[in-house]
Amino acid sequence: MGKIFLLLLIIVPALEIGVLILSGNTIGVIPTILLIILTGVLGAALAKKEGLNALRTAQLQASQGQVPGSVLLDGICILVGGVVLLTPGFITDAIGFLLLIPQTRAVFKGFLKRLFEKLMRNGQMVYVSRNAWNQRR
Question: How far is it, in rounded angstroms, from Cα 102 to Cα 64?
Fold first, then answer.
């Protein structure tokens, strides 16, 4: 997992630079900069809206005695999507918007759920229920 993350840290910025240069040559430098600013502003507004919706849903589920598992995955996707949208570049913006739009977020949530289940099976992540946590105190 660490090797994949390191590879992404090298490849994604290189691709972003290439796309930004291509965009600057195609539509011009000023329109490219304005487009990057626009996606950042729109992304921040969408992240705020979706984040507040996820928070309200989590509070509602918690008040009804339910564990807001799916909403927590939504929150993770929204947080990552918002952060990624703040980085300049069109590839990261596309990924960020995919993480913020509820219909496309479902794909990422399924991936995260499988990843967390695998980590728990391998003992790399531990889940402690509320009852077990209160008994440990």
Answer: 23
Per-residue pLDDT for 98 more than 90? yes
Q: What is the rounded CA–CA span in Å between residue 37 and residue 89?
A: 10
Q: Which residues contact 75 (CB under 8 A, 6 or more apart)?
A: 51, 54, 55, 58
Q: Helical H runs in the chain?
A: 2-27, 29-63, 69-86, 90-100, 102-121, 130-136
User: How far, in Å, CA of 135 to CA of 63, rounded?
Assistant: 22
* Nearest partner of 124 among 134, 115, 111, judged by Cα: 115
Rounded CA separation 79/54 (Å): 11
For residue range 39-52, what is the model confidence (pLDDT) as tens digits? Answer: 989 988 998 998 89
Cα 19 from chain centre: 22
Domain ranges of the chain: 10-136
What letters, b where the CB count within 10 A reaches 16 and e where it falls short, cover 34-44?
Answer: eebeebbeebe
